[in-house]
Design brief:
heterotrimer, A mainly alpha (189), B alpha+beta (343), C mainly alpha (643), B: 343 residues, alpha+beta, three-stranded mixed beta sheet, 37% helix, 18% strand, elongated, C: 643 residues, mainly alpha, two-stranded antiparallel sheet, 18 helices, 2 strands, 64% helix, globular
Chain lengths: 189, 343, 643
């Protein structure tokens, strides 16, 4: 039958298409038992961009959870559950500083935010070391960064099933915090 | 003749297999209370009607096929319509069958509406009132009391006294769940933004398993609960125990365990009254050792299962909200000892 | 051969005319030409092949589910993958197989033939509806293969499918797939209604329309009223997820139950949309293989209409557990029981037809008879569900799974196989192998009952639906293993059918015009029909066209054969009304489908795609509807102006 023969190239094209698709999509990953990026990089986190001589080029540490919409939405739930809202509210700040603007006291890289949560900071930020498991800290880190629009729109959470308090993260325009541990010439605008 | 036997036997087999459903716990045909019993009676009424109808229709079909002539050619067309006579007898048969259908449907409708009215509530001035809040993937159980300090908060296990009406008020903290203990009653959905009420009563002692019956995410399959019906005095004793705050542990190992609880991730999500831990994200663990199961009915409550659950709940219930807790073995040992003192 | 059959085939004198007809009506061959076809049989075959491919995909997903559930606490599939698989299984079967096959494929292929015309109304829309359906299905599977398959159930209740609890794009892809498939169904519905009412052979008054055509027309009306509800509910879900509306957010005045009402307002008629074509098929096949006209034509027709109407008043029976007021629920119990009367009437009429007829047990009839065993059991367990108290026990358990597989497979899949065995000779010109058909039938019948009957008992024993595993302590192990074994038999049966299909293309017995001695007009032409369907357009003398034909049954003359001219007739008695010209092959349907797809798929990912998408689609539609000069001139010459 003519129609069947004509389908052959379509079937071939379709198989190739499917093969490439099987490569998967990072946004939708749901890892329930994940070995988390360890804090022990051995390098610490550079807080100032002034240094004697030349600075070695250093890539900012990436948070692999920032590709996963599931992880970011888990971070959002944890932000609520662990009472970050008590001081930071929904990003607007209160007792604690706002998290959705572009002023980052301790740096905006994932590593900086991780340190803030785990070590605590002067003037009232508690240390959650040993209280929040490491993988959950990274999820919260990802969410906190999404609050100022740092994450791609399709990974950031949408509106929640609560009273409407602020624009959801997926609709938040990207703030541009200054970068501290990347040499001047390599900073992204 | 053979075909008629075949159809009849088949229908009978189906009927017998249905009877095989009266099987134990979590069965809709093993009622332990008046609500489930009324539903079960209605079930048997409708079932016998539809079984009879099914057998009759199959016999009709079987006979029609059995009567056929075997030598008919597809090449000869039947005569055109204008040459055919009106079929009065057949019209009467079909009309009669429709009439019988309407009659049976009315019977079913009446029985159904009457039963629905009867199970809508159990008239009681002073029922025991239990609030159930559905979470992903566990049941928060609260026994309300007139005095706030007499409120009982527990999880995944409900005790009720035998022979007394209980009203269950359902709501949800996240998505739609459904509360279903088939031995006691049909199901009621837990819908965020709504509060529904379900009246149950157990007329005999026993432990009745129930399960979430509305798809609610990854671990919908592992969201069970138990309803334990016991004599009134045992129920009152249980309730009094649940209200009480457990004393501080005396045993040094248990004391160490309490410290482990308060210094690790546990304290971020769980309440144990008397210890200082007051988070409300996970089930209330104040009387954990008095419960028969853990993880919403997934595992029996014993030391080994508790250890496995604490260390790596994700391998038992992947996707659930409790993270893995890689504790050192000393800490784990102490923690387990402490948790097992929480009767 | 009867005189009417003779009129449908070529006589020597008119060979020139037939060659011109062939020239005018044929669609271009070749790879690129394939994308320009507007012939209804070409598009109908594509619908059938695509829908069957989705049926097989859905079957593979079901096999995976049964494998996982065959043992308690099995680790073959984790919860995330299992949830995606059962959602894909339900969505594939309901949106990508059942409606496209039972309604779209069969109606597009058969209705124009059965009403005796050359093409379906709105041929370009027909092609467009196929491409939209195809792209929607590809979207869903592209999602599935990239771990973005929906995992919230085929019905995707909120709040679980809302932005808070299903992150990522999974539910968005599902929601937009709905838009694609429902647009396709709506387009076909319009075509079917217009074809049935305006393009019938002269003499085919309303009370002489074949029951199959009536069934498809009634379903078309149901589609028009039901599909918008689900498009609305899924689009509102999409808006909640992407542009922060609050339709289903209780905290801001929305309602989670609203979604259920909208969805089931579509969902219940949907199952009748799937089932009524099945009854049309069964009516046709029982009449042919009982060698007599169907008994109770009017009763069956009114039953189908009654089912369609009453079917819109039943939707709350899917929501009895949500705690709606008791009085309201009783109303829906009454309506749900009322629909039994309509279906029962059809069953009684068929039984009488067989009782008073002379039954010939060929393969199509075997599958049609299975309807009685299987669909009727499913329908009767449905009576249990209509009753609110009983439904509160069996809702959302495997009892329901058993029920709807009995009604869907008994009411659609078995009649579909009957239809395939019945009409395949017309489509390909050769008969399928009868012996293989019997193997297929018995394996499928036994396998089906082995798989789904135990599920009734599992539901009564407390096994809920949509669970990826169950504890070994529950008494569900053996019945689940039995069900999984039955699934193996069903798989083998379908494989036999596929082998039979490929075998018959080369080796099947030549069918001739009318191998079954049937009555409807498609059997009045060759197998397969020529591109112009009928050499001479027939007229009709009674309800069973070929059986009631007179020895000098007239044919239609006066249509030009150098352009695609068709006869349009009046609605009531099919008196000739006017001649119309249908468009020839054109690539505009697929171009418009691609533009529409860019619009739909783009808006899943960003709201910025909205305006470019609309503009692209608008341009494509503009090109589509722009009048063609030559056709307009020919129309003016044809028209007779009354002064």
């Amino acid at each position: 039958m003519r129609e069947l023969r004509a389908l052959r190239p379509a079937i071939l094209a379709g198989s190739v298409f499917i093969f490439f698709l099987l490569l998967g999509c990072a946004r939708e990953q749901r890892n329930f038992r994940e070995a988390t990026p360890s804090n022990e990089t051995g390098e610490g986190v550079q807080m100032s961009d002034i240094a004697p001589g030349h600075s070695a080029d250093r890539k900012p540490n990436a948070n692999p959870y920032e590709d996963s919409a599931y992880a970011v939405s888990q971070g959002k739930q944890l932000y609520e559950m662990y009472n970050c809202v008590g001081c930071h509210f929904h990003g607007g700040g209160g007792i604690g500083p706002p998290l959705m603007d572009n002023k980052w006291i301790y740096g905006s890289e994932p590593q900086n935010v991780y340190e803030t949560i785990v070590e605590g900071r002067p003037n009232g930020m508690p240390s959650f070391r040993g209280k929040i498991p490491e993988s959950q800290v990274w999820e919260i880190v990802a969410y906190v960064r999404s609050m100022s629009g740092q994450l791609p729109k399709d990974v950031s959470p949408g509106r929640e099933d609560h009273m409407y308090s602020k624009r959801p993260e997926a609709s938040t325009p990207k703030e541009h915090p200054p970068q501290t541990n990347v040499p001047e010439g390599q900073r992204q605008k | 003749m053979k075909r008629r036997l075949l159809f009849g036997t088949l229908a009978l087999c189906f009927g017998i297999l249905f009877l095989a459903s009266c099987h134990g716990n979590q069965s809709a045909l093993n009622s332990a209370g008046p609500q489930a019993a009324r539903i079960e009676r209605l079930w048997w009424l409708i079932f016998s009607i539809i079984l009879a109808v099914y057998v009759i229709v199959l016999l009709w079909l079987g006979t029609a096929l059995w009567r056929r002539k075997t030598t008919v050619s597809l090449n000869t067309f039947p005569p055109p319509q204008k040459d055919l006579k009106p079929e009065r007898g057949a019209t009467l048969v079909v009309g009669g069958a429709i009439g019988l259908t309407v009659l049976l449907l009315f019977v079913i409708l009446t029985a159904s509406v009457l039963t629905g009215h009867a199970i809508a509530n159990l008239n009681s001035k002073n029922p025991i009132s239990i609030d159930i809040v559905g979470h992903q993937w566990w049941w928060e159980v609260r026994y309300e009391a007139t005095q706030a300090d007499q409120t009982v908060v527990t999880a995944n296990e409900i005790h009720i006294p035998v022979g007394q009406p209980v009203v269950i008020k359902t709501s949800s903290a996240d998505v739609i769940h459904s509360f279903w203990a088939p031995n006691l009653h049909g199901k009621r959905d837990l819908i965020p933004g709504y509060e529904n009420a379900l009246w149950i009563q157990a007329d005999r002692e026993g432990t009745f398993r129930g399960q979430c019956a509305e798809f609610c995410g990854h671990q919908h399959a592992h969201m069970a609960f138990f309803v334990i019906a016991e004599p009134l005095d045992k129920f009152n004793a249980w309730l009094a125990n649940q209200v009480s705050t457990p004393p501080s542990p005396i045993d040094p190992l248990a004391k160490q365990g309490e410290q482990v609880f308060l210094t690790h991730t546990c304290v971020m999500c769980h309440t144990i009254r008397g210890s200082g831990a007051g988070a409300k994200l996970g089930p209330d663990l104040t009387h954990l050792a008095s419960r028969t199961t853990i993880a919403a009915g997934t595992l029996p409550n014993n030391r080994g299962n508790l250890a496995g659950w604490i260390l790596d709940s994700q391998s038992i219930k992947p996707g659930n909200k409790m993270p893995p807790n890689p504790l050192k073995s000393d800490d784990l040992n102490a923690l387990l000892t402490y948790l097992q003192t929480l009767h | 051969m009867t005189p009417v059959e003779q009129a449908g085939t070529a006589s020597v004198v008119e060979v020139d005319s037939l060659q011109r007809l062939e020239q005018t009506w044929k669609d271009p061959g070749g790879f690129w030409g394939w994308f320009t076809h507007v012939n209804h049989r070409s598009i109908g075959k594509r619908f059938m092949v695509t829908a069957f491919a989705f049926f097989l995909a859905g079957g593979v997903l079901a096999a995976l589910m049964r494998l996982q559930l065959s043992r308690p606490e099995n680790h073959f599939l984790g919860p995330d993958l299992y949830n995606q698989i059962f959602t894909m299984h339900g969505s594939t079967m309901m949106f990508l197989f059942a409606v496209p096959m039972m309604f779209e494929a069969l109606a597009v292929y058969l209705v124009p033939l059965m009403v005796g015309n050359r093409n379906i109304c709105f041929p370009r829309l027909n092609a467009y509806s196929y491409y939209i359906y195809l792209f929607g299905g590809l979207l869903l599977y592209a999602g599935f293969f990239t771990n973005t398959g929906p995992d919230v159930g085929w019905f995707a209740y909120v709040p679980l499918s809302g932005p808070d609890f299903t992150p990522g794009k999974r539910a968005d892809i599902w929601a937009q797939m709905i838009t694609f498939t429902e647009l396709s169904a709506l387009a076909v519905a319009i075509e079917v209604i217009c074809t049935t009412f305006k393009m019938r052979a002269p003499g085919m008054s309303l009370n002489r329309i074949p029951l199959f055509v009536w069934a498809q027309t009634i379903v078309a009306f149901m589609v028009i009223f039901a599909m918008p509800a689900v498009m609305l509910s899924s689009t509102m879900l999409l808006l909640d997820r992407t542009v922060n509306t609050h339709f289903y957010n209780p905290a801001e005045g929305g309602d989670a139950i609203l979604y259920q009402h909208l969805f089931w307002f579509f969902g219940h008629p949907e199952v009748y949309i799937i089932f009524i074509p099945g009854t049309g098929i069964v009516s046709t096949i029982i009449s042919t293989f009982s060698r007599r006209r169907i008994f109770g034509y009017t009763a069956i027709l009114l039953s189908m209409v009654g089912t369609a109407f009453v079917g819109f008043g039943l939707w709350v029976h899917h929501m009895f557990a949500t705690g709606l007021p008791q009085m309201g629920e009783s109303f829906f119990t009454a309506a749900s029981l009322m629909v039994v009367i309509a279906t029962g009437t059809q069953v009684f009429c068929w039984l009488v037809t067989m009782w008073t007829g002379k039954v010939v047990l060929k393969s199509p009839m075997l599958f049609a008879l299975a309807f009685f065993f299987i669909f009727i059991m499913g329908g009767l367990t449905g009576v249990l569900m209509a009753s609110v108290p009983v439904d509160l026990q069996i809702h959302d358990t495997f009892f329901i799974v058993a029920h709807f597989h009995y009604v869907l497979i008994g009411g659609a899949v078995f009649p579909l196989f009957a239809a395939l065995y019945y009409w395949m000779p017309k489509i390909t010109g050769r008969l399928l192998n009868e012996a293989a058909a019997k193997w297929h039938f018995w394996l499928f019948f036994i396998g089906f009952n082995l798989t789904f009957f135990p599920m009734h008992i599992l539901g009564l024993r407390g096994m809920p639906r949509r669970i990826y595993t169950y504890p070994s302590a529950m008494p569900w192990r053996n019945l689940n293993l039995l069900a999984s074994t039955g699934a193996v038999l069903m798989t083998v049966a379908v494989l036999i059918f596929i082998v039979n299909f490929f075998w018959h293309v080369k080796h099947g017995e030549i069918a001739g015009n009318n191998p079954w001695g049937a009555a409807t007009l498609e059997w009045a032409t060759t197998s397969p029909p020529p591109v112009y369907n009928f050499a001479e357009l027939p007229t009709v003398n009674g309800r069973d066209a070929l059986w009631d034909a007179s020895p000098q049954q007239p044919i239609v003359t006066g249509l030009d054969d150098d352009c695609r001219q068709v006869l349009m007739t009046h609605v009531m008695d099919a008196d000739p009304d006017h001649r119309d010209e249908f468009p020839g092959p054109t690539p505009i349907p697929i171009i418009a489908a691609i533009a529409t797809s860019i619009f739909f798929i783009g808006t899943i990912f960003t709201a910025k795609a909205f305006f470019p998408g609309i503009i692209l689609t608008g341009i494509a539609l503009l090109i589509w509807y722009w009048p063609k000069r030559q056709a307009s001139l020919r129309r003016r010459k044809r028209e007779i102006w009354q002064r």
